[in-house]
Amino acid sequence: MIKDITLGQYYPAESVIHRLDPRVKLVVTLLFIISLFVVDNIPGYALAFLFLAFWCGLSRVPLRFMLRGMRTIFFLLLMTVVFNLFLTPGTPLVSFWKLTITREGLRIALLMAVRLVFLIVGSSVMTFTTTPNHLTDALEALMRPLKRLGAPVHEIAMMMSIALRFIPILMEETDKIMKAQMARGADFESGGLIRRARSLVPLLVPLFISAFRRANDLALAMEARCYHGGEGRTRMIPLTYHARDRIAYGLLLLYLILAVVIGRDIFGLAAAIGGLPV
User: Fold this and answer.
1) What is the pLDDT of residues 165-204, one digit of tens each?
2) What is the pTM of this model?
3) How does DSSP assign 119-134, residue by residue?
């Protein structure tokens, strides 16, 4: 289970997506996630699937590598489907005992499951194709207008980048501790839910100690290198837009327009408001 967590991992490859400006990839990912909550019908989700498939194909990241991270959210996905399936009122389809599956519940459950899968895969493409340093530069550049409000933009971007970078490190450390505990006779898989939760205590204590030790070592290393925030700092490779970045923005704009038109049936809505025949 631990090795299936792919969030924060970088997959080196030679692709168009890898060469894009990190600001473009961050904007595309954020707007794609927002679009998933805008579309509300099957054609809209089909359009989102085509855009995501095109984006993943250009990244040259193996599909099995991206889908491997889906195992970690299986229970969240299952709970989302079950709750929407049985707790949504509407036209009954199947009834047994005190549970009823409605037509509206089935539709919402399927759309929510697809939305969650698209969200995870779309976010994974960004982390697989963007190094933490580039991601930090992109976050800082996009949040630069907040400096006028007194927000510590550089520090926020640095903290988010460090947190993202430490995810695979802590997962690897967790796997090592679990194997060491299992070699000493610990059992993390048998028993009920409460017993499994109690068995995690010998795992969490050394993991927290290791995390605090790594954080202290990082702070000492930054202090030894005279790190004092973002004031006056320069970059070895400044962020600059190229033709491929402008093309990516154009494709994103085209997708967003189609998502609003197709996913929300804007023509039908406008006709209904204006009293025109659809």
Assistant:
1) 777 778 778 888 888 877 877 776 766 667 776 777 777 8
2) 0.74
3) HHHHHHHHHHHS-HHH
Q: Can you give the residue ranges of every domain in the chain?
A: 1-130+240-270, 154-239
Q: At 243, which helix (H) or strand (E)?
A: helix 243-263
For 213, other C-beta atoms within 10 Å of its C-beta total 10
Q: Where are the alpha helices (DSSP H) in 20-147?
A: 22-36, 42-59, 63-67, 74-87, 103-129, 132-142
Phi, psi of 265 (to 5 degrees): 50, 55
Please measure the distance between the N-terminal and C-terminal CA atoms of the chain and give it in whole angstroms.
51
Residue 158 CA to residue 144 CA, distance in Å, equals: 13
Query: How far is C-alpha 123 from the chain's CA centre?
Result: 4
How far apart CA 245 and CA 17 sit, in angstroms, is 10
Q: Which residue in 123, 102, 129, 110 sits closest to 46, CA to CA?
A: 110
3-state DSSP percent of the chain in helix, strand and coil, to 5: 70, 5, 25
